[in-house]
Design a protein that fits this description.
Layout (H helix, E strand, L loop, with lengths): L2 H22 L4 E6 L2 H4 L6 E6 L2 H18 L4 H6 L1 E10 L2 E4 L1 H11 L6 E3 L2 E5 L2 E8 L4 E9 L2 E10 L3
Length: 165
């Protein structure tokens, strides 16, 4: 099985399980809002789908956005560090696995040299201490990140990246 096929299968399974779980629970807050103003030119008519039941789940999604748009995109590595636990496990980023914040930031520094910014998180789902967030970059790369949170920080992060064919 190729990496591309494997990624599609895993993303489909995660999305199906996440959506199935959420739909089986009590009512979920789901909103559709316009993308932030600075992103609208790149992704016209794009909407954001957010599913979260509790204040903690909404806060985790907001922290995820902050870590991406203010940390990663603006190369604010202090903020990026603060969104993760010191012993964060990050799996799947360009077929790379890191354990600990220092190796994860080192990977981010190398990867960020391409200056490919994430322009949107169109789908964001939170269930308990897990989040599933899709992302789109300016270079039309799409991704899904599954994260497990501990005390407001990402402790585990699994990314599945699909580049355009």
């Amino acid at each position: 099985m190729t990496q591309k096929v494997f990624t599609r299968v895993v993303v489909t399974i995660i999305a199906t399980i996440s959506i199935g779980y959420i739909l089986s629970q009590e009512p979920v807050l789901v909103t559709a809002v316009s993308a932030p103003q600075q992103q609208q030119q790149s992704i016209s008519n794009q909407t954001e789908i957010v599913g979260a039941k509790t204040p903690q789940e909404r806060a985790n999604l907001e922290r995820f956005d902050k870590g991406t748009f203010d940390g990663w995109n603006k190369k604010n590595w202090t903020l990026y560090r603060n969104v993760h636990t010191p012993d964060v496990l990050a799996v799947g980023f360009s077929e790379n696995t890191t354990k600990g914040i220092d190796p994860h930031v080192q990977w981010a520094l190398e990867t960020a040299k391409s200056n490919n910014k994430i322009i949107a998180h169109p789908i964001k789902i939170a269930v308990d201490n897990w989040t599933v967030v899709t992302g789109i970059t300016a270079e039309n790369i799409s991704m899904v990140t599954v994260a497990r949170w501990e005390e407001g920080k990402i402790a585990e992060e699994y990314a599945f990246i699909q580049t355009p064919t």
